[in-house]
Amino acid sequence: MLKIDQLFAQIEDKGILKGLSLDVKPGEVHAIMGPNGAGKSTLGNVLSGRDGYEVTSGSASLDGKDLLAMEIEERSHAGLFLAFQYPVEIPGVSNLEFLKTAIEAHCQAKGVEPPSSAEFLKQARQACKQVNLPQEFLKRGVNEGFSGGEKKRNEMLQMMLLQPKLCILDETDSGLDIDALQTVAKGVNDMRSPERSFVIITHYQRLLDYIKPDFVHVLSDGQIVRSGDASLALELEKLGYGWLNAEESA
Amino acid sequence: MSELLTKAIAKSEQVNNYLHPVRDQARSRLAASSWPNRKTEAWRYTPLRALEQSWQPSVPSTLSDEALARLDLPQLGSLDLIWLDGHLQAVEGQLPEGLSLSRFSDLSSDHRQSLMQQLGQTKPEHHLFGNINDAMLEDGLWIDVAPNAQITQPIRLVFAATQAMTEVQSRVLVTLGDNAVAHIVEHHLGEVRQWQNQVFELSLGNHARLDHQALYAQQQECLFIGGWHCALGQSAELNSLVLAQGSQLKRINFDVLHRHQHASANLDQMYLLAGKDLFDLHSCIEHEQANGQTNQRVRGLVADQARAVFNGRIHIHQDAQKTAAALNTRTLLLSSQAEVDAKPELEIYADDVRCAHGATVSQLDDQSLNYLRSRGVAKHQAQAMLSLGFMQELVADLKHESARNWLQSYLKQAFWALQE
Ligand SMILES: Nc1ncnc2c1ncn2[C@@H]1O[C@H](COP(=O)(O)OP(=O)(O)OP(=O)(O)O)[C@@H](O)[C@H]1O
Ligand SMILES: [Mg+2]
Q1: What whole-number distance in Å separates Cα of residue B43 and Cα of residue B280?
Q2: DSSP string, A11-56
């Protein structure tokens, strides 16, 4: 599904990703952990096509299609979804209108009829319920005045409506209360399927109690420095990242 | 002197009713004033050439049901006052208690006197077109809200232009007694070539509140010059939102006077211009007394070869200590040939004030653009959504639901029409 090979990327001449490789197969859940500033969000941003990042070498593909050659919106149409670590507030654009436009754009890209307004509204309300967000939030400006946790739920809501193939969740668990954490976990688990994959960036083992990852990776200084199964996360929780460096220099 | 001015003075001399002191005084002011040219600061970017045509007086007519339907007025649950080419139609329905509406020409002699005392109280003497309006003053409407009356039903003033090549002078006086509350909606519309010169004078009593929305939707052909002058009593509150489309000539002088302490003015002013439209907003906020508050937000979208002119003056007098005044103006230019001339003018003579102003030509926010696109929205559409959102943000803050819905959908329609 997602294949990243020796990816190097920089921001304003500063190297951030330094030869990162990752292979995510359909149906798999990968967790990425790692110290602050390691490049985790950068990975998500580079994959989703955000301006300002320059890929200097390496490749990334989704279902065999070269992601790096696509426009931001084309990557979304191709099935990539990034739940942002810091979702932006867009006052003046209503959440509902935003969601509707996004769905219509996806339908158009697929060449299918978009849902009727009534049908769409039903879906949107349903999704609100699933992420425990009051329906009034559909009328508000996109993320406008939302609390940290509400923003994250709104990201989940978008993910549910867009039904992407590859979901990258960038610290979607940060800032969530315990109930919300379970809501997010349930949302992800409900969406798990043999055709859909997840890359979950997190600092906490906690989320992984609810969403069982197939693989856990440690991203440090722009590279995956270690990969393992779910038990690696437990180990990291106990020992921190220090021992990795110690091992490396040993 | 321009022909227009000469004619105005000549016509003024022919009118005969009790308002003659107003006309006489205006005539003498006009005789001493000169017609603006390129060097006249207040009219630098706004040429008046288009006014030099031969205008006919508009003919009084009655609005038929079909014509009313054609105006396609939105349902606001309002009490409607409709001016057809400057002629006020009969008002239907029961007036809420505490509200009185009178034509100047219908007033009893007692009321005539108090009218004469009110007229010219808030309108600056040096405004050329204000003086022309005075000189031609034959009639007008006085909207009075009694002290303590809370009129929650919106009072909608519709100004419709239908007769081409006519000249329309109109005058409205609004007075709110102490503790009174009112909600006034102005809707200006029409597609014909017409010259409109309008003066609004408003005066709010102590602790009075006026909520106001105005849509200047007259199209390209309409030449509009308007003065909107509002004086605030102690602790009075004005909440006003203006949305304007441009036309060949459209100029509004919007003045707020803090005559007493502790008053507040929340002013949102927006324009959406396309083609070769012009919109010129001159606002002047006078803080004469202490503890006043003004929060003014001006936003504009300018497309094609349109041009926006904004002059925002805030004058804080010596006695106006502890004034808090903020003026923020942002314009988005949607084409390389679009233009904006924005000039904030701060004059501060008190030392203990909080005053902020900013004027920017804005860019769309990259992060927001990225966010929308990352959800599959095409770039050009994301840009359009953000541009429209830039304006909707202010409308979204309106407390009155029906007015908000109306202006939101109007803005949306006007915006998408401009994108085509
Ligand atoms: N726009 C930018 N301009 C300059 N430097 C940047 C920019 N974005 C990220 N960086 C830098 O790139 C490095 C990696 O940042 P990134 O956000 O990818 O880290 P992260 O692993 O997600 O960290 P965290 O766990 O704190 O979220 C950091 O040193 C950061 O300061
Ligand atoms: Mg991060």
Answers
A1: 9
A2: ETTEEEEEEEEEEE-TT-EEEEE--TTSSHHHHHHHHHT-TTEEEE
Q: Which residues of B touch A (CB under 8 A)?
A: 365-368, 370-379, 381-382, 385-386, 388-394, 396
ipTM over 0.90: yes
Q: Which residue of B has its CA nearest to A82?
A: B374
Are A50 and B381 a contacting pair at CB < 8 A? no
The average pLDDT across B82-92 equals 94
Please tell me if residue A142 touches chain B, with a CB cutoff of 8 Å: yes
> What tokens were used for B370?
């990225």
- Give the full edge-to-edge strand order of the sheet including B87-88: B87-88, B79-84, B155-161, B181-190, B209-216, B237-245, B264-273, B293-302, B324-333, B354-362
User: Per residue in B375-384, pLDDT tens?
Assistant: 999 999 999 9
pLDDT band at A250 (very low <50, low <70, confident <90, very high): very low
Confidence of residue A239 (pLDDT cuts 50, 70, 90): confident
Q: What pTM was estimated for this model as a whole?
A: 0.90
Rounded Cα distance between B156 and A33, Å, is 61
Residue tagged 């909600």 (tokens): B183
Question: Is B391 within 8 Å of A48 when comparing Cβ atoms?
Answer: no
Counting every residue written for chain A, the total comes to 250
Cα(B127)–Cα(B131) distance, rounded to whole angstroms? 6
Q: What is the pLDDT of residue B28?
A: 93
Q: What angle do CA A163, A164, A169 make, to 5 degrees?
A: 110
Q: How far is A101 from chain B (nearest CA, A)?
A: 7
